[in-house]
Amino acid sequence: MNRTRVLAGCWTILALAALAGCGGDGGGGGGGLTAMRGDAFPFNVGADARLPGATITVLEHPERTSVTGADGHFLFEGLEVGDDATLTLEHPDYHRIQTGTLRLEVAGAERVTFQAVNPLTYWGMGLLVGMIPDERNKCQMVTTVTRVGKSLYDEGAHGEEGATVTIDPPLPPENGPIYFGSNVLPDPSLTETSDDGGVVFVQVPPGEYTWTATKPGVRFAQVRMKCRAGWLVNASPPWGLQALD
Predict the structure, then answer these.
(1) Are strands 178-180 and 186-187 parallel, antiparallel or unpaired?
(2) Can you list the positions of beta strands (E) in 43-86?
(3) Which residues 6+ apart lie within 8 Å of 66 measured at CB?
(4) SS3 for 88?
(5) Annotated domain spans of the chain
(6) Arithmetic mean of pLDDT, 102-116
(7) I need a surface site. Which of 1, 57, 120, 225 has the fewest CB within 10 A?
(8) Is the separation of the CB atoms in 234 and 143 below 8 Å?
(9) Is 175 helix (H, G, I), strand (E, B) or coil?
(10) Are the beta carbons of 235 and 222 closer than 8 angstroms?
C-alpha cells in the first residue's frame, strides 16, 4: 500500500472531523434560527391596553430594531437558537425599560412583554420606598412572582401569594427585596409576595443577576437580568418568576 496515500487519507479524515466539530455548541448559537414576539403594555392600565410607537431593540444585536404598531406588537425573526436575548423599549413618554434575559430555544419566545411606566410613576414609586433612583450609576430591577398559567394577558391580579425572593449575587438588605402590596404599590413592610406578586430591588450596581422564588410546594422558573445604569429592568409575566406547578 502506498504510504503517501495512507497519510493523505488520515489527514482528510481528521480535517473532516474538525469541521464537523465546528458545528457544535461553542457558547453561541449554531442550532438554527428562531423568533421572539410579544407586546408592550402601559403599566397598570389593563390587559387590553397596548403601547404603540415604542422602539424595541435586541440588546445583544443592537442593529435589530422594531417599532410597535397600534396593537403594541413586535416580532423578531432570524435569531440564533442558543443565544441570549434581552429586549429594550424606548418611548418619549415612558422610562426606558428592558426585559429579563432569555436563552433562546428552538420554539422561540412567545408573549414577551413590557410593562412601560411613565416618569411620574417611576419616580413616585422611588419616593414610596424612600429613594431617588440613581440614573447615572444604578439600575432598578423588578419582576412578578406569578401563579401557574397567568400573565399580563389576563385581567386581575397575577401573583403567587406567600413566596420569598432572592438574587445572586446577593445584595445588602437596603436594596431589597421590596414586595408589592395588593394595591400594586411597593411596601417595605412586607416580607413575602402579595396576590400582586410584584417584587423590586433598588439602586442595583450594574452586572448580571439571577432571581429565585421560593414557596413550599411550588416550583418557579428562574430569571436572569442584565442590570445597566439608568434602566428599569422588568421581567414581566409570563417571563418572570413563573410558577411551574
Answers:
(1) antiparallel
(2) 55-58, 61-67, 73-80, 84-85
(3) 55, 56, 57, 74, 75, 76
(4) strand
(5) 33-242
(6) 92
(7) 1
(8) yes
(9) helix
(10) no
